Amino acid sequence: MTTKRPDLPPVFVAAIAICSTAVLLQAVTAGIFVNQDGRDSWVTVHGVIADVTWVSALVAAVVGLLRVRRSRPVLAYGTSTLFVLTLAQTGIGHLITDKGMDGLIVVHVPLAVLIFGLATFLVVALARAHQVLPPVLDPYVDEGTDHSAVEPFPVANRD
């Protein structure tokens, strides 16, 4: 006997997956163009991926607040936070590249690490919300007793 988790909207799952993948690609492209000759094309790629990141985070945040908030508030508010951070990060990145405000790199890099951590947390939380758990095994309870699955992220009370 297993307990199935409530289904999350596929667009929500896809948006988190796209955003998290884009965050990883942001780190890769940033590492490629740091102190490189011919870096302009990589900076452009980095900027395009930044737009994919905040747009997919926006989609996840909107769907999260409209359809997921009651059942999985951690996911809903986490994606909203991710959207705000990625949008701010993109703005800071444009100030660095377009306006030459290189002093903002000291904000841009640590914010990128924070975003990377939040995206990782959301992927793990999403995976845990989708997994099918076996019943809790208790050697002191009869085999005929109905067992409940342990809830890693409790569903909010709907009362």
Overview of the structural elements:
The chain has one domain. The protein is 67% helix and 0% strand. It is built from 4 helices and no strands.
Number of helices: 4
Global structural class: mainly alpha
> What helical percentage do the residues reach?
55-70%
Order of helices and strands: HHHH
Low-confidence stretches: 137-141
Mean pLDDT: 83
Query: What is the percentage of strand-forming residues?
Result: under 5%
Rg from alpha-carbon coordinates = 20 Å
**Shape call:** elongated
Distance between the termini: 28 Å
Number of separate structural domains: 1
Number of strands: 0
Largest sheet: none
Secondary structure topology:
Blueprint lengths: L9 H24 L6 H29 L4 H27 L5 H26 L29
Helix pairs in contact: 1-2, 1-4, 2-3, 3-4
Please supply descriptive tags for the structure shown above:
single chain; 159 residues; mainly alpha; 4 helices; 67% helix; elongated
